[in-house]
Amino acid sequence: MNVRIYQINMKRDANNVAFMNYESPPKFQGSSEIDSSLYDKVFEGEVNCFTLEKLYEIFNLEHPAGYKGRSMSVSDVVEIIDGNTGKSYFHFCDSFGFQKVDFEPEKTQVSDRFLSLAEQEKISVLLVPVGKSPIVKEIPNTYEAMKALVGGGGLDEYMPFEDDAAIVCNRDGKQEKLPMNRAVYKEVGEVADIIHGDFFIARSNVADEKYSSLSGEQLLKYKRLFRYPERFHETAHGIEIEPFKPDRADKER
User: Fold this and answer.
1) pLDDT tens column, 102-143
2) pTM for this predicted structure
């Protein structure tokens, strides 16, 4: 989710509406409208989750690395930016759940506790490009950064391994006929699937919908597993797969 988070600045809160639920403002400020000028922006960026409830949990219990705002609480406002249209939707954190509201971000200020994109948590993943050797990459732990690695579009997760490592690829890679990259094997010679387009490998925690860095042992293991690019040839008997050593010019320096 691409989000911005706004919290009331206590110094500008003359009517003491901070931490009050959605029904309270009329009693304290004489209007039901959210006063955007009371708010500071405390966060902007991609968060690896898919629901407001999970976002609340992350910013209440598991603050992202470097986050300096308050734990998310009642009266905070969350702006969700639609990745397809760029349109923003605003949600007021209520006592129970969230209320969709009108909000004017241009009237807000930027908190001195604001977490910039450069300060966000980074993770180490193994990028496996088409026709090239695997590359260790350090990226922001954001949905947008992960999409960029696989050529845009949505993400798909595939966990064929015995550990917690996941292949993360372009969800529409096959449909969009991206070039075939690497085969994944059940056993020696038996193909389980073919990944289309660039993909990366990271550790997946299904419980909290987050990715984390591969361990040193995992980086070595999967660099070896995918060290050779593969060529794919359509034949009368199916697809033949030919591993090859990339030219030096194909390798990332």
Assistant:
1) 999 999 998 876 755 555 678 999 999 999 999 999 998 888
2) 0.56
CA dihedral of 190, 194, 195, 197, whole degrees rounded to 10: 140
195-215 pLDDT, tens digit per residue, is: 999 999 999 986 666 889 999
